[in-house]
């Protein structure tokens, strides 16, 4: 398999993370990759010095894009996507990392699954969550845990489950670049969070994403950084997440009313869930009624036995 992978890394004034992310890519056992590094409004000299410190074999595979002013997460990602001509794409935020076998395992998994299912246009590995803090410019590890341990990654991921919630981590996904183009592009410009969820749904209403049970990507987060550049965007934007989630749900439903697409299915699914809950409640009530009847019969049987014993004693 000679397919190539283009890696989009978005960064802004976070050199301590960027060095780690680039090292993570450099250590990949899969060698056919290139990076588009998007400096979204950060200090250019810092990024350039980090790239210059990399080995020449790595520097030659890094394309650096500078934005004089920040255009935001989604547009920064789109700029990187437009610069790529590879077969597949992956997005690695500057504060996340990969296991050295991440790309190799993903590409092998794609090859294996496509030999059986021709609808697969992407692959997703499971993640670790890494809690950390910055102390004096140094990254201190606090805790490593499993990301969504209750969610498995079967051969083919469920569109039904994806409609309910986004259970993937962006750093664990590799997608077919042409499929992303056909699905409307990488990220919606107006989304600052949930841009990946929107992408997965646009892709999965047409094709499939295969799963990998191994945890090969690391989602790093920090809860209490006073420097906004060093914080974690998802932790820092909880209010925006609620706003954008409802905006996405409304958008999908509006699209469904026009095209009878996945929004309508998502809306209908809520009714199915409600009916299922009602059925479960009914079954529970029925079971309770049966138990009451059984208990009543037991009481009656005991009473009859006691009466028989009394009659026997009387005789």
From TrEMBL:
Domain Glycosyltransferase 2-like residue range list: 7-112
Source species taxonomy: Bacteria, Pseudomonadati, Pseudomonadota, Betaproteobacteria, Burkholderiales
Keyword check for Transferase: yes
CDD domains the record matches: Glyco_tranf_GTA_type (cd00761)
Name of this chain's protein: Glycosyl transferase family protein
Keyword Transferase on entry: yes
SUPFAM superfamilies: Nucleotide-diphospho-sugar transferases
GO MF term (any one): transferase activity
Record InterPro entries: Glyco_trans_2-like, Glycosyltransf_2, Nucleotide-diphossugar_trans
Pfam families: Glycos_transf_2
Keywords: Transferase
Source organism superkingdom: Bacteria
């Amino acid at each position: 398999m000679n397919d190539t992978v283009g890696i989009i890394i978005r960064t802004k004034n976070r050199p301590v993370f960027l060095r780690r992310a680039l090292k993570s890519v450099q250590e990949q056992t899969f060698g056919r990759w290139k990076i588009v590094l998007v400096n979204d409004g950060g200090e250019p000299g810092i990024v350039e010095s980090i790239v210059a410190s990399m080995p020449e074999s790595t520097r030659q595979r890094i394309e650096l894009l500078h934005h004089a002013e920040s255009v935001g997460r989604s547009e920064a990602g789109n700029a990187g996507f437009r610069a790529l001509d590879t077969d597949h794409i992956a997005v690695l935020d500057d504060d996340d990392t990969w296991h050295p076998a991440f790309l190799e395992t993903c590409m092998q998994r794609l090859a294996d699954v496509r030999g059986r299912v021709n609808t697969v246009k992407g692959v997703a590995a499971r993640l670790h969550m890494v809690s950390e803090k910055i102390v004096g410019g140094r990254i201190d590890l606090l805790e490593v845990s499993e990301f969504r341990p209750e969610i498995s990654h079967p051969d083919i991921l469920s569109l039904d489950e994806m409609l309910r919630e986004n259970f993937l981590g962006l750093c664990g996904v590799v997608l077919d670049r042409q499929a992303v183009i056909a699905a409307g592009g990488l990220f919606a410009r107006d989304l600052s969070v949930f841009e990946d969820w929107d992408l997965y749904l646009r892709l999965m209403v047409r094709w499939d994403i295969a799963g990998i049970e191994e945890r090969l990507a690391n989602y790093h987060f920090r809860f209490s950084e006073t420097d906004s550049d060093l914080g974690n965007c998802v932790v820092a934007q909880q209010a925006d997440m609620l706003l954008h989630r409802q905006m996405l749900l409304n958008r999908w439903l509006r699209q469904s009313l026009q095209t009878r697409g996945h929004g309508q299915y998502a809306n209908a699914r809520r009714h199915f869930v409600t009916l299922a809950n009602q059925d479960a409640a009914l079954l529970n009530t029925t079971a309770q009624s049966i138990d009451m009847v059984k208990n009543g019969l037991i009481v009656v049987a005991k009473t009859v036995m006691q009466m028989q014993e009394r009659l026997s004693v009387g005789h």
